[in-house]
Structure formats: structure tokens, C-alpha cells
């Protein structure tokens, strides 16, 4: 009985949507620890371009990832709208620099499509789907894949 | 295992491990000479182990410990003398017990067959030659009757009472009862005994411990205990055990009539006869024997290690905040310096800072353990090793009481094992070879620990054949670690460091003792992870000395903060030798390597900026210093050392010295060459902690020279 009901009610998910360049991205709300303003980043020498550096988040050291570089997007300027989305997978905490945060979105399953159907970009491993809202397309990030460090 | 005992398994295993360690150490000491106290201690440890293993229902273990205990009893009563074969047998038994304990820890039971071993122990016992029956010089003075329940006092307990009196302890009779609804009477009773033992020594128990273990008693039992403290401490001890009531406590040595009835003092001896139900005590006043005072057991509680770890982490945060608050106050003082409220704030801030410092000290102390926790397992290892290799080795341990943080204790053991094995295997020669070299047949291996400033220094020394730089060079070339050209350029000291290179073994044959030449490689990398340094000093034919310098703790270090461009680096003070101000004209270029002459020695200079390039500016490492500093601006140089080498790091400015809390960069960032972590400074900014050993490795890699790293 209960299972039958579940089929009828569509699962929905809550996302935090943010802007990178002229694209809108989304990260499921559960994996986000907090969103902070950009602060002074301490560089860690010898690390690749995707690693911006580290910040002091209330006594904890949190690495900052340049999400634009990570996703292969062109370089962007920091503005007063720039934010750091701090995500955590329980083990690691990483801050992702984004251009601006739009807000919380609610998407139901039927609004989400597999990435390959719409985009044919080279690296799709970081994307787990595309959400369609009335006025925009939201690229849903595969957070574990983005956080995973490439083997150097 | 007995039912319902699972919950005590952890406690049992922990205590059993302690007793085992004690036994092992003592049996080793036994080999060099047996004293009454030592035998007494061994006997007690074996007895406790027997008691607890039986209480847990681990009967095979109980049997074995029982046999061991009997042997010790015979030794103690001079009915048996210590022979090497007996010690070997005892070690066999201890090994078997260890194996059993491991089994119990894994599966909760043991399946090991101990019949053969037990019968060998029994055989050893029956073959005893009675050396001398103990002569008890008992002279009766006064018989004093005390209302006591039935006491079955064995000669063992008799001795214990005698000893306690000699030591000037007071003796108390405790009547205890178990709550009627108590489910596990025996466990409560045994816990009570243990509690009392922490406050003093148990001389006699009625009914005896075996009966208590098997629940062969009603609700009451009686304990005769000696303590060098007062009755209150015994009461408190009993109070820690729930479901146990202290019915009464009587002092029987200090009772007034005892004192008044005393006759002339006579040789110390006291005998408790076993005439039940009244305990007849033949009691003599002992001649003051303060010199044999039993060691007072400090009052301790067991705390989960993770709690201490959390505490230290929190203190780390506090230390950061403390520094930050003090700095903020300094910044504000220009603005509000004259404001009385601000003055008060300043006072409060400095008070908080002081408290934070003390708190840090105390927590660090609470985490300190004597290094003996690590050292204690080595004598046995050396003994076994030496036996296997047919070498005779005198192992001397010094400074076992040196204390260091448990984080260090945990990790320092393995490197030391490798080093000691190396000394025994490769260092010390066989007896014939030693005699040929005009040395005594017995080789010496020293293990020393001591505090030195903010460090622990551990030395492993042997008087063996030493390291031969010539052979080391040859070996390295043959093994392809180095080219002939590099090898010939190498100093003797550098050559010695080759033993830390991977894939390098100086022993001609690979033995199962120190492995395949990976040992010292691992030693070095493990030590580096701890922020420790290792130095070698060796003379051919005379021996080798390995010196390990360890930080007191792995969590907080003192660092010299330096700025390089806009970044701040913390250099561990342990590796900093000195700081210099050098004029560019003093810098020479030696084969493209900027170098200065410092007190007659050349010192290569490395720009920190080149090691850790920031921004897009990936500067060329070979940058020549004086071309950049064309004006006569002095440059700051921090001289750091590692493995006997020194280099000068060129920095922009010196910021200051500060206690830094080490934080890892995290898994996401991963390992960064030359960095061991980061720390948060007083102003909230971050400093990167330089890993000096790592920097040396980076440099040697770049130059293509094996810095033996």
C-alpha cells in the first residue's frame, strides 16, 4: 500500500542554485554546509590551478576550489556577489567559489533529465542531470565527482 | 567464557595486558638477578592474572597461570633457583598467555592447548632442588586477640603482613557486604579487592579469593589491607564500587592497647596463625624501616583516550583564540588606550591568555606517558634477537621515565624497533669477530631517552663495527642508487646517510631479522612524518650512534614565522639553527648555487620563493640571488638543518616566534611537497607550516643528488 502511494507522489529535491558565468548550476541542499562571503584565501604553493588555496573557517582549515576552472569554464572576475558554497561529504569539506547565489529551487523528478540528452560537452562526469524550470536550465552538479581529486 | 562476563572483557584484557607487560619485564630482570621484592612482584602479577582469568571463566588460561604462579612461589621461597632454561620456559609460558589473550580479544575464548606447556611447568616445579627451607626467626612477644572472622592465613599472606609492618604501613580490617540483590557477587567482590589494591595492599581475604571468585560466600567478606595512607582512602576506594557496603573498618596496628602492651623491640617479624575463628596475632613492633617504604600508588582514574584527544583539540582552538584576542587588544590600544574599560578588557584578556596557557600545559601533561611504555618491550626483543643470531648483547636502557605525549608514544615504537634490530643485526659483530677486533665478546647496545629543550632525544648506540663510508659508496653504486661520479663527490657524512636511501642494505646477506634493506628507509620516512629528525654518527670499528630528535607533541609546535611575498610560513623551531642578515655582496655563486661562508663553512642558500612559487609567477629555481638584490639591501636567511646538513632559506622578513597548532591541509588538498600543514595565526590569517625534511628532499631531487632521503 505504502509503496503504491510513493509511486504516485513524485519525489522532489531541493537545490541551491548559483550562477557561474551565464550558466545556472545546482547542488542538492543536503550536501551544503553553508554559504559564505569570499574572504582572503591563502595560497597553497605547488597545487594545481583548480585549488585556489585555503581559508580559515572559524578555526577550521577549508580548501577553496576554483569551480570555474574545475568545470573548464573561462576565467571570471570576483565581484561583491561572489560567494563560497561550502560542501561536505562527511569526510572532506571543500569550499567552491561561485559568481553569485540565486536561491533555493525545488525540482520534481520529471523536471530532471539525464545530461547526455541535452548537452554533448566533453566532460560530463561532473554533471548528474539537468533540471528544467519555467525560465531556465539548471545544471545539477555531481558533488562527489567534483570533490574527488584527480589522480596526479 | 562465563556468561554475563562479556561486559568485563574490555577491562579484563586491559588489565591482563598490563600484568603481562609487568611479568615480561620482571622475568627479564630475573635473568640478571633475583631479589625478594622482584619475586614478590612477579608472584603478585601472576596471581592477579590467574584470579582474573578464572573469574572470566577462561580456564585453560587459569590453569597455565596457576602453574606459572606455583613456579614463582617456589622461586620466592627459595625452593627453586633461576636458571636460563627456567627463564626460557617462563617466556614460553608468557608467549602462550599472550597468544591466548589475543585469541580472547578476538573471539572471546581460547582454544590453545596448554596441556603440554603446563606439564612442562609442573615438571620444572617438581624437579626443584630445595635450596634452603625458609627459616622464620619468629620470636614471640605478645599475643593480641582481635575479633576476626575465620581467616585462613597462608605463609604467603604471613610474609605480606610482615612486609607491610616493616614498611611502616597501617593495617586495617575491612568488613564488607554485598547488596542482597546483587546479581554478580563475585565480580563485585573482586572489583572491591581491586579498588582496595589501588589504595593499598591486600594482605588477606576471607573467604579466600578463589572462593570469592566462585561465589562460594554469603553476603559478607573480610579484607585485611595495608596502606600507607589513612582509613579514609580505603573507605573511599570501597565507595567507588557499587552494591558494596563497608560494614566496619578497624585499625589493628594502631590500637592504643597494642602500643601500651609493647615489650622490647625485637627483630621484625609478625606471624599470623591460622587458628580460626579468632585470629591470634603475634605482633611485634617493627624496627623503623622507612627505607623500604612501599611506593605509594597515586590516585588515578582511567579516561578514554579519545576524550583527551578532544580536549587537546579544543585547547588548540583556545590557543589560537588567545593569540587573536591579545593581538586585537594591541590593535585597539592605540584607539582606546586611555579608556578605563579598555584597560580592564586588557587585563581580562591577559588573564584569559594566562589561563589558556596553563590549561594547555596541564592537558599536555595529562597526555604524557613515560617512554617506558615503548621501551619496555625492547629488552625481550633484543634478547630473542641476540639469541637467534648467536650474539651476546648487553642492552642498556637509560631514561625510561622520560615523558612524552601519547601521540608520539604511539608512533615512535616502530622506527625504534627497526633501529634496534639494525644495531643488533648489522651493528654488533659476532663474538669471534669482536674478539679478533680486540673488543669484549659481549656487545653493547644502548637505548637512551632524555629531554632537551622542547624535544625528546632518543639515542640508539652500539659498539659494533660502525658504518664504513667507503663500502657504503661502493654499495650504492653497485645497487644503482648513485652514479660513480656522484658517489665520489660525496662526503663521508653524506655517504653514511645513504643507509636511509630506499633499496639500500649494508648487510651482505639478507636476514630475516632486519629485512631487505627497507628498514632504515621506513624509519626515516616515519620519523619525518612525526616532525622528527635523525642523525648518524659512526666510526669504523668503534660503533654507531643514531640520534632521533622528537617533538614533545604532534599537535602544537613552536614555529618561526617568516613572510615570503604575501604568504607567511611557519618554520618548526626544532629545525631552525639561527637567523642571519646577509648583504648581497657576501653571497657567492658556486656552480650556480648562491652560497655564503658562515664561520668558515659554506652554506648554500635557497630562496623560499623558488621552493614555493606563488601566483602565476613560477620562478626559476636557479635564480641567482645577487642579481635580484642589486642594491645593498640585507637579505634575511634562516639557517635550517636536517640530517646533519644545513642550508639557508632566504625569506623576505622575519615575523616572529609563535606557538602554532598544526592542522592538516585535509584530504582534498593532499600532500604538498615541503609543507606539513597549516596553522591559524593570531590575526586570523593562515600560515603554511614548512616541512624542513621535505624541503631538503625537494632540493636534492632538483639537484639530482641523493640527499639520502
Distance between the termini of chain B: 51 Å
What is the CA-based Rg of chain B, rounded? 32 Å
Order of strands across the main sheet of chain B: 17-21-22-20-19-18
Strand content of chain B: 15-25%
What is the strand arrangement across the widest sheet of chain A?
Answer: 8-1-2-11-10-9
CATH topology of chain A: OB fold (Dihydrolipoamide Acetyltransferase, E2P)
Our count of helices of chain B gives 24
Low-confidence stretches of chain A: 1-7
Residue share in helices of chain A?
10-25%
- What is the CATH superfamily classification of chain A? CheA-289, Domain 4
Q: Provide the β-strand percentage band of chain A.
A: over 45%
Name of the top-level CATH class of the largest domain in chain B: Alpha Beta
Describe it.
The complex is a heterodimer of chains A (152) and B (709). With 152 residues, chain A is mainly β. Chain A has a single domain (11-147), classed as CheA-289, Domain 4 (OB fold (Dihydrolipoamide Acetyltransferase, E2P), Beta Barrel), CATH 2.40.50. Helix content of chain A is 11%, strand content 45%. Chain A is built from 3 helices and 11 strands; from the N terminus they run H-E-E-E-E-E-H-E-E-E-E-E-E-H. In chain A, the strands form 2 sheets. A 6-stranded mixed sheet of chain A has the order 8-1-2-11-10-9. In chain A, strands 3-6-7-5-4 form a 5-stranded mixed sheet. Chain B is an alpha+beta fold. Chain B folds into 5 domains: 6-126, Four Helix Bundle (Hemerythrin (Met), subunit A); 143-289, Alpha-Beta Plaits (2-Layer Sandwich); 305-365; 370-551, 2-Layer Sandwich (Heat Shock Protein 90); 556-703, CheA-289, Domain 4 (OB fold (Dihydrolipoamide Acetyltransferase, E2P)), CATH 2.40.50. In chain B, the strands form 6 sheets. In chain B, strands 17-21-22-20-19-18 form a 6-stranded mixed sheet. In chain B, strand 24 (675-680) and strand 25 (686-690) form a beta hairpin. The longest helix of chain B has 32 residues, at 305-336. In chain B, 37% of the residues are buried. At the A-B interface, strand 4 and strand 5 of A face helix 11, helix 23 and strand 24 of B.
